[in-house]
Write a structure and sequence with these properties.
Layout (H helix, E strand, L loop, with lengths): L2 H17 L1 H20 L8 E6 L3 H11 L4 E5 L3 H9 L5 E4 L6 E6 L3 H19 L7 E6 L9 H27 L1 H6 L5 H26 L6 H28 L3 H20 L5 H7 L3 H14 L4 H33 L1
Parallel strand pairs: 1-2, 1-3, 4-5
Antiparallel strand pairs: 3-4
Helix pairs in contact: 2-10, 6-8, 6-9, 6-10, 6-12, 8-9, 9-10, 9-12, 9-13, 10-11, 10-12, 12-13
Length: 343
């Protein structure tokens, strides 16, 4: 047994692995995910809950919560229980505490998002028991609102994943494949001008996202009417345009279909993971706010789960429209540079 030859084989395999995009993806993706998981699990950055308080003892309870749980609860006063409960059902706050004289509180919790519900329930029980001076006795009656919508809480996530996957991964691979096989050159020698080719690709990607999303909504028996339906449709269109533009940019710069698949896979996880974990940590929230997937996911969640109107979803529609415009312009610029390079 020759140690030198074995060492040479090991070194060769390492060098080939560094050149192999598939191996790099298999190594880098878990590493990137672990960084986000570490941020989520950082005890110095706890999750913040939006809690409303109402009732005759709301002032004293508000002062106590701000002092005892400032790192976990953001307190907002409400004039009456009806207004607070409406805020919970619309997803504006995570819970409402009714503070009236007596032995027990009543807390209304948003049950549409299990990721928030279970940790919030524990926080409220602990803090309110401390307020009453009865740390080992339950002092709050929990009432779950939006309970019937819990089963649909994952649908905004799947719609976002679908838009990102089709736009970024499918479009980039398809466009790169046409370049590699010469199909794109055949189209370009026809009467179609370059702008028409790019626009056609973009429309195809957008329509594909919308068709698949519509089928998904139909299969899940989602019925939207009025402003929530229009808001969801606009969010899906803007999201589809944004991710289709990203896919076309990748396809334009990739030299082969395999390279496009590799690049799109590396782009896919950073687009999805911070967006769906934004509520778990301030770190993931700051990372998610620079991504179009974050605004698409949050907007769809408001429209589908809480039947939000235009005003409520405006904070997601405007940034997503900005992403769609900027990414479309970048796609056009990348296309022109590719043409200039090939001439």
């Amino acid at each position: 047994m020759n140690i030198g030859r074995i060492t040479a084989i090991v070194c060769k395999d390492f060098l080939e692995a560094l050149r192999n995009k598939t191996v790099l993806i298999a190594v880098l993706l878990p590493l990137v995910a672990s960084l986000f998981l570490a941020a989520v699990d950082n005890p110095q950055q706890p999750q913040m809950f939006l809690v409303g308080v109402t009732g005759s003892e709301s002032r004293q309870l508000t002062l106590f919560l701000k002092e005892a749980a400032a790192d976990a609860i953001v307190v907002s006063p409400y004039r009456d229980a009806a207004a607070g409960k409406e805020a919970v059902t619309q997803g504006q706050i995570h819970a409402l505490i009714v503070a009236e004289p007596g032995e027990r509180f009543i807390a209304y919790l948003d049950g549409a998002n299990p990721m928030n519900y279970f940790p919030l329930k524990d926080v409220l029980q602990t803090v309110l028991s401390a307020y009453k001076g009865r740390r080992f006795e339950p002092v709050v009656d929990l009432v779950i609102l939006n309970q019937g919508k819990t089963s649909t809480s994952l649908l905004p996530l799947w719609l976002t994943v679908t838009a990102v996957m089709i736009g970024v991964m499918v479009l980039s691979g398809s466009f790169a494949e046409e370049k590699e096989k010469g199909t794109l050159d055949s189209i370009r020698v026809s009467s179609a001008v370059d702008g028409e080719i790019l626009l056609g690709k973009g429309i195809f990607g957008t329509l594909l996202v919308l068709v698949v999303s519509s089928i998904m909504l139909w299969l899940n028996k989602v019925e939207l009417k009025g402003e929530p339906a229009a808001a969801a449709a606009l969010l899906l269109i803007l999201g589809a345009v944004s991710f289709t533009a990203i896919g076309l940019i990748i396809g334009l710069h990739a030299r082969s279909q395999s390279a496009a698949r590799a690049i799109s896979t590396l782009v896919y996880l950073p687009l999805i993971f911070p967006a769906v974990t934004a509520d778990l940590s301030p770190i993931t929230r700051r990372a998610a706010e620079v991504l179009p997937s974050f605004y698409l996911y949050r907007g769809l969640r408001k429209a589908l789960q809480y039947q939000a109107d235009w005003e409520s979803v405006g904070g997601e529609i405007l940034p997503l429209a900005g992403f769609a415009l900027v990414l479309s312009l970048l796609t056009l610029l990348a296309y022109r540079r590719t043409l200039d390079r090939e001439r």
